Amino acid sequence: MKTLIVYAHPEPTSLNGSLKDLAVSTLETAGHEVRVSDLYAMNWKAVVDAADYGPDASSPLKVALDSGRAFDAGTLTPDVRAEQGKLLWADTIIFQFPLWWYAMPAILKGWVDRVFTYHFAYGVGEHSDTRYGERFGEGTLAGRKALLSVTAGGPESHYAARGINGPIDDLLFPIHHGILYYPGIEVLPPFVLYGTDRMTGEDYPDVAKAWEQRLLTLESTEPIAFRRQNFGDYEIPSLHLKEGLEPAGRTGFRLHVRG
C-alpha cells in the first residue's frame, strides 16, 4: 500500500501529531510506503490567488478556468504540482486533523482549494444526455481510498443522532462526499476520537491500540456506499435521486448512501 498522510495541526507534540507519527511507524513496519504532507511544517500557503496560475491567470481572475488552464499547461506552482503528484502516487490517503468550528482547519481547506484544481479533481469527462462528467464515483482519483482521522473536543453524545452538534456523519459529509468522493476517491468510515480536550496520558495506550487496528485493516475495510452519479440512481441533468430508491423515511444526506 502507498499511503499519503495529509496532516494539519500546528503542534508536533499534540494528539494529532502523535496519531500521525503512529500511522507512519505502523504502516512502514507493516511494509507499506508512506509519504507525509505536514502542512504547518511546510508553511503551506492556504489561499488561492493569481500567483497560483502564473502566466495563465486572467484579469479579472477566474479561479476555476484559470486553474484548469494552468494545470493543462503545467504552469501551476511547484508546491501544488507536488501535492497533485503525491495524490496520483498514493492508493490510500489519510487526513489527520482536529475538528475546529465544525470543519477542517483553514490550512487544510486551503490545501484542497489549491490542489484540487479544474481538470485535475473536477471538470473532467463528457457531459451528455446520460453522463454529467466523471465525478461522484468516477474521476481522476478513482481507485484510491481515503480515511479521515479526526479529533473532536466534545463528548461523543454531542455528535449523536440527537446531539446538539449534529450527527458526526452529517458534519463530515461535505468532506466525505463533496471533496473526496467527488473526484472518485472511495471513502472509508472515519476514525473519530471524542472528548480529546479531557484526554490524559493514561488514555493514550487504548487510543493507540484502536488506531493501529484501523490502520492494519484499511485494505479490508468496506467504503461508505455512496451512490455513483452516472450509473442509474440519478436523473440527468437534474441530478435528483430517482423516486423510490431510498429506504422509507430516509431524508437528507443519507439519501446518497445505498442500503
TrEMBL record:
Where does the Flavodoxin-like fold domain lie?
1-215
Q: Which SUPFAM superfamilies match?
A: Flavoproteins
- Name any one GO molecular function: oxidoreductase activity
Report keywords, A-Z: Oxidoreductase
One Pfam match: Flavodoxin_2
Please name the InterPro entries in this protein's record. Flavodoxin_fold, Flavoprotein-like_sf, NAD(P)H_dehydrogenase_qn
PANTHER family, alphabetized: NAD P H OXIDOREDUCTASE-RELATED (PTHR10204), NAD(P)H DEHYDROGENASE [QUINONE] 1 ISOFORM 1 (PTHR10204:SF34)
Give the protein name, as stated in the record. Answer: NAD(P)H-dependent oxidoreductase
Q: What is its EC number?
A: 1.-.-.-, 1.6.99.-
Organism of origin is Sphaerisporangium corydalis
Q: Which family does it belong to?
A: Belongs to the NAD(P)H dehydrogenase (quinone) family.
At the top of the EC hierarchy, this enzyme's class is oxidoreductase
Query: According to the UniProt entry, where is the signal peptide?
Result: none
Q: Any keyword Oxidoreductase?
A: yes
